[in-house]
Amino acid sequence: MIGYHLEQAGAESIVVCGDSRVEAALLPSSVAGVPLVNAGIGGATISLIGSEVPMIIGDYKLHLLVLSAGVNDAKIENRTTNSVSEFRSNIEAAIRKLAQNARKILLTSIPPVENGKPLGPRYYDGDLICRFNDEIASSAKRNGADFFDLAGAMTNENLELMAGMSIDGVHFSRTGYEIWRPALISAIERSLDTAN
């Protein structure tokens, strides 16, 4: 489906890669007159995006590629002593692959999960999310990509998703998307300005 949407949008479009948080978002069909394709894939990890999305993009040269994912890399069941170094390697590899098909890349931080919900801190490791966000910011700087702290506006003083921002702890509610979506679009607009 992503490939079919990209075929209709054409080259020089914006592609927003991500997991189910992106996949479920009602994104506009264009930003600043540039067509936008929602390339969210439910359950996606950074390594899956790095391996699958370049095949979907094919020979297209994108105006902007947004990478907004990583929460699935922070599942407690997958945590190891090497989680942070593996995440660093995976995001660096993904950026290298995706950069071949994009004039500009925008990386966003990972919003945390909401406490007291089924898919909250008992399912995802909040400390790993914070450490992964540090890696995302560092990777953006090392690779000349833009970075936007998408998590900041949605995070409470306990470094958790603010109450009411999710349906189940991880997937955003309408209230969550009312903060997430405009913040993402604003970051896209800034990246488009610097790409021209």
Task: Explain what the structure shows.
This protein has 196 residues and is α/β, with parallel strands linked by helices. The chain has six helices and six strands. A six-stranded mixed β-sheet has the order 2-3-1-4-5-6, sandwiched between helices. Helix 5 links the parallel strand 5 and strand 6.
Question: What is this structure, in a nutshell?
Answer:
Residues 25-179 form the SGNH hydrolase-type esterase domain. This is SGNH hydrolase-type esterase domain-containing protein. With 196 residues, the chain is α/β, with parallel strands linked by helices.
Record the SSE blueprint.
Blueprint: H1 2-9, E1 14-18, H2 20-23, E2 30-31, E3 34-40, H3 46-57, E4 64-68, H4 83-99, E5 105-108, H5 126-143, E6 146-148, H6 174-195
Parallel strand pairs: 1-3, 1-4, 4-5, 5-6
Antiparallel strand pairs: 2-3
Helix pairs in contact: 3-4, 4-5
The total of helices stands at 6
Rg is 16 Å
Oligomer: single chain
Poorly predicted parts: none
What fraction of residues sit in β-strands? 5-15%
